[in-house]
Amino acid sequence: MSNSTKTGFRSRVLFATRNMNKFKEAFLILSKYNIQLDHLPEDKLEIQSDSLEEIATYAVKELASRYPNRNLLVEDDGLFIEALKGFPGPFSSYVYRTIGLSGILKLMSGRSDRRAYFKSVVAFVSPELGLKVFTGVVSGVIAEQEKGSQGFGYDPIFIPEGSSKTFAEMDIKEKNLYSHRGRAFTKFAEWFRNVMLV
Amino acid sequence: MSNSTKTGFRSRVLFATRNMNKFKEAFLILSKYNIQLDHLPEDKLEIQSDSLEEIATYAVKELASRYPNRNLLVEDDGLFIEALKGFPGPFSSYVYRTIGLSGILKLMSGRSDRRAYFKSVVAFVSPELGLKVFTGVVSGVIAEQEKGSQGFGYDPIFIPEGSSKTFAEMDIKEKNLYSHRGRAFTKFAEWFRNVMLV
Predict the structure, then answer these.
(1) pTM of the predicted protein model
(2) Chain A hits for B109, Cβ within 8 Å
(3) ipTM score here?
(4) Nearest C-alpha neighbor of A81 from the set A102, A56, A120, A107
(5) pLDDT category, B1, cuts 50, 70, 90?
């Protein structure tokens, strides 16, 4: 059965990201829902804000002005460390490129409160369906040192609740069971499948 | 002599900032050039970029879409620490609000290379004169501990070249002699006075 025939709108979705790891994680989830995810290797416009929702919403709207008549997705995420007032938060990518994991571990040295959470915001827009935002959160702690070599970004220093391993010690399928991004994309997929099947 | 009479365009300039300290620093400089600076207490749109020039240019253009037919100024600045690959850079304000001065000092503990610079970018736009960008830089070092109580932001931990005092140990007039913001606004003022007098 072709969804596009049945519903009249395209079931293909274009995901704008420069990060192939993110694309692979999302592709794996959406394929379970028979949603075809295409890769748009293009920079999105990111504003400075303490709110990931605001950043992702602005980005997907700006993208829609360049790619009208498409199903568009952007995703933004961040690591929020309680003892550091949410730092690095929405600026996780910049902080990773500058002070890096060793900088985070240095800032956390001597701290007993190591609680942190990853948050992912997926923003979708299409002419037919409008704007929708989906969030996923995973709580955990900052490890005492880097562990594991899989994944990317802060994965080697984040241990999700319910596990004793860092994200970097998990393969992509195990990580997706826990991960904020997995949760946000799963919410999107369930919603999108439903509207496709209406 | 009224410049606006002579040249046909307004000599009043609107500076969009939420930071009254920045406004005072700029006002003091521009008044020496007989430029009337008005305060627009409004948020500017800041994009995420490693380039202050890009951030300020985007912001002043967006502002011009809301305030057409005005002389508009925005300013963005950042502290760039060499040993931290430029961190906190364009995200200095967010980093100040989260890990703060103590976080920076912790990241710098045990480091002998303490070189850093402040950079300020002033972006101007008007219908008559178009877009112009002015930069000011001041080199210095990160202090071993916080000193002084004047100024704002990173002033207590930055010692400019040629001084043994932090910015926070200087009054606003002395700071303006050194400061990146002082230099950028002085460049703007010299240019703007010249075009007013043409």
Answers:
(1) 0.85
(2) 106
(3) 0.82
(4) A107
(5) very low
